Inverse folding.
C-alpha cells in the first residue's frame, strides 16, 4: 500500500509540473495578444499615452506639455521657444535646437523658424562638399584649365564640371593633346572628318548616295542599249540585199555613191562610239592614245605624301584597310617606323606597289591610273570630299 501511495503522489507531482511549464510558455503569448496596439486603437495624428488613452499629437512648431486626461480631451501643447523648432507631428516634451551656420565660407541661406530648421549655404564661388550624411564643407569652385571646356557652371551645391576638348584626353588629372596613332585611337575616338560629319552618323547619307548612283547607272545603261540598237537597225536597212543587188538604180532617191557614203559614216560612228567606251582591262596601246593632259601614271611617293597631307591622321588606317592592306601589314609598318607619318607612308606604299604589280603597270615607281581611281572612290565613301577634289584637280581628273 505504501508503494502504491508513493507512486500516486509522484504522478500528481509530474502532472502539476507539466501544467505549470505549459502555462509559463503560453502566458507571454496571451499577454502580447491582449496588449493594445497604437496602429489598431488610435487614429492618424494620435498616439497611445501611458494611461492607455489615445491622445492627439502636437503640430509642427509645438512641443508636448501635458498629455490628455481622457478620451476626447486635447493634449496641452506649447510653441517652441526662439532658437528651437519641430518639423513634424510629435509628442516630444522638448523642441530641437536650430542649426548654426559657423563654418568657413558658409552663410545663412534660410532663417530658423518654429516649424523648420535653418539652412546654410556656401558663399558665391564656393560649393558644398559632402563628407558624410551629417558633415560637409565649403570648397572653392574649380576653374577649367588648358585643354578643357566647361559643361556645367559651379553652384552652391555642385562644383564646376570640366571635360577635355576634342583631340585631348585626361592623364594625371590634366587634359593633354593626342600624339601619335596609339593615343588618338585609345583616348580620342570621337573624330570628325574634313566635311564635318561625325563617324557613324552618315548611314542615311550613304544609302541616299548609293541609290542615286544606281539610278543614274540604270539610265545610262538604258540609253546605251537604245543607242546601239538604233545604230544596228539603221545599218541593217542600208545593207539590205535588194538595195545591193541593183547598185545602178537609185533607192528612195539616193544614188549608189550616197548609199556607200552613209554606210561608211555609220561604220565610222560605231567605231568611234566603241572606242569612247572604256574597256577592261585597258591595254598600254589604248592608253598611249589618250591626250597628254591626262597623266597615265603617277609617281607613287608624290601621291602618298599628297594623301597624307589631305587625310586626317586618325582616318589613314581606315583608308588603307579599305584598300586591302591587312592588319598584319599595318602592325609591321608601325613596328618598323616609330613616327606615325612614316608608318602611314609605308602602309600606303604596300597598297600602291601591290596594285601596280597586279595590274602590270607601275614601272619605275609609277602608279597606274586605275589604282588612283580606286583611291578616289574609297575617299568618297569615307566622306572626305575635300581631299578627293584636291587630288582630282592635282592629277587632272574630271
Amino acid at each position: 500500500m505504501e508503494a502504491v501511495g508513493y507512486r500516486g503522489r509522484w504522478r500528481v507531482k509530474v502532472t502539476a509540473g507539466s501544467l505549470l511549464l505549459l502555462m509559463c510558455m503560453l502566458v507571454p503569448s496571451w499577454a502580447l495578444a491582449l496588449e493594445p496596439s497604437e496602429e489598431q486603437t488610435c487614429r492618424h495624428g494620435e498616439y497611445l499615452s501611458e494611461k492607455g488613452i489615445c491622445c492627439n499629437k502636437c503640430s509642427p512648431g509645438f512641443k508636448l506639455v501635458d498629455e490628455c486626461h481622457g478620451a476626447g480631451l486635447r493634449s496641452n501643447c506649447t510653441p517652441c521657444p526662439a532658437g528651437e523648432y519641430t518639423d513634424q507631428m510629435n509628442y516630444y516634451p522638448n523642441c530641437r535646437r536650430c542649426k548654426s551656420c559657423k563654418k568657413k565660407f558658409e552663410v545663412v541661406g534660410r532663417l530658423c523658424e518654429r516649424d523648420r530648421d535653418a539652412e546654410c549655404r556656401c558663399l558665391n564661388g564656393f560649393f558644398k562638399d559632402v563628407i558624410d550624411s551629417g558633415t560637409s564643407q565649403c570648397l572653392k569652385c574649380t576653374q577649367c584649365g588648358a585643354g578643357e571646356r566647361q559643361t556645367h557652371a559651379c553652384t552652391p551645391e555642385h562644383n564646376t564640371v570640366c571635360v577635355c576638348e576634342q583631340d585631348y584626353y585626361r592623364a594625371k588629372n590634366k587634359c593633354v593633346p593626342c600624339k601619335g596613332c596609339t593615343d588618338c585611337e585609345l583616348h580620342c575616338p570621337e573624330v570628325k572628318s574634313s566635311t564635318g560629319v561625325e563617324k557613324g552618323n552618315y548611314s542615311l547619307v550613304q544609302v541616299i548616295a548609293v541609290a542615286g548612283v544606281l539610278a543614274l547607272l540604270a539610265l545610262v545603261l538604258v540609253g546605251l542599249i537604245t543607242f546601239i540598237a538604233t545604230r544596228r537597225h539603221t545599218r541593217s536597212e542600208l545593207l539590205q540585199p535588194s538595195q545591193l543587188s541593183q547598185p545602178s538604180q537609185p533607192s528612195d532617191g539616193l544614188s549608189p555613191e550616197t548609199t556607200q557614203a552613209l554606210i561608211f559614216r555609220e561604220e565610222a560612228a560605231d567605231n568611234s562610239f566603241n572606242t569612247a567606251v572604256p574597256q577592261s582591262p585597258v591595254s598600254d596601246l589604248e592608253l598611249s592614245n589618250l591626250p597628254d593632259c591626262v597623266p597615265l601614271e603617277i609617281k607613287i611617293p608624290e601621291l602618298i605624301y599628297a594623301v597624307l597631307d589631305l587625310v586626317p591622321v586618325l582616318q589613314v588606317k581606315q583608308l588603307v584597310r579599305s584598300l586591302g592592306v591587312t592588319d598584319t601589314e599595318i602592325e609591321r609598318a608601325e613596328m618598323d617606323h616609330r613616327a606615325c607619318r612614316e608608318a602611314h607612308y609605308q602602309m600606303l606604299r604596300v597598297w600602291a606597289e601591290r596594285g601596280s604589280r597586279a595590274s602590270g603597270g607601275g614601272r619605275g615607281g609609277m602608279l597606274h591610273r586605275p589604282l588612283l581611281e580606286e583611291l578616289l572612290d574609297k575617299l568618297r565613301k569615307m566622306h572626305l570630299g575635300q581631299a578627293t577634289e584636291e587630288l582630282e584637280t592635282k592629277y587632272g581628273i574630271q
Summary: Residues 203-238 form the longest helix (36 residues).
